[in-house]
Design a protein that fits this description.
The chain folds into 2 domains: 116 residues, Tetrapyrrole methylase, N-terminal domain (Cobalt-precorrin-4 Transmethylase, domain 1, 3-Layer(aba) Sandwich); 114 residues, 2-Layer Sandwich (Methyltransferase, Cobalt-precorrin-4 Transmethylase, Domain 2), CATH 3.30.950.10. The longest helix is centred in the first third of the chain and has 13 residues. Helix 3 runs parallel beside helix 4. It has 279 residues and is α/β, with parallel strands linked by helices. It is built from 9 helices and 10 strands.
Length: 279
Amino acid sequence: MSQLFIKGKVALVGAGSGDPELLTVKGMRLLQQADVILTDRLVSSEIISSYVSQNAEVVYVGKQCRKGASTSQATINELMVIYAKEGKLVVRLKGGDVSIFSNILDELETLVQNNIPYQIVPGVTAALGAAAYAGIPLTARGHARAVRFLTAYKSDVVTPNYWKELAQTEDTLVFYMSSETLPNVVENLLENGISAEKLLAVVEQATTPFQQVYISSLYEYKEKYGDKKFLSPAIVIIGKVVALHQQFEWFESQYKNEEYFKPVYETNINNKELFALTA
């Protein structure tokens, strides 16, 4: 039997990639025990309404690139410290997994510097959720040797030599936070001679009732989707495995062109004095 989590600590918990039923049992138990939840934007509202105690304080600390009233990382760090030092059990709830393309390093460093005990609870990361719900086995035998998790959120974040390697590899490529720079991703791969056998899939709002999957050859991408603005969050999968989607697609979306995750708004910090509002 798992031990109760001692208060005055922080649990960094992955909420999964959208579907509230992908939350782990350990994550659910911690939410039921928590005094305070600091939650990201990309967390299903059903998780908060179903598993959080009515006596818990829920603080929305979401981020949304270039949109809305995003919460700075420094504020999030400070809130963790303030609540933990009050002797409370704090759950820092993150969409997907806590260790893949998140700011967990900043948060861990803050907790260590302030001598605050913590634990890390993994979640279903967006790449795995998107691939599963799109029927795309990421390392299917005969189609891929491995899988790489990447990001190209800025046009210059990947070096020219690495673009060449990415174009030639037999690994499946999964890009996070890259839907806005996708034309640049496609252009770089084409310039480096990527095989026409490799297809591209964009999975919008994966594992939610609003999921949409868009498939294209890289050589036809500009014509089919070059001007399209994909809804956030969107995962990009590139490789031979994408061709398996047509055969193994199983998940039926219920809605189109709507947002599952609500936009961020100003964080409710209950007038607590913060010293790290500099980010």
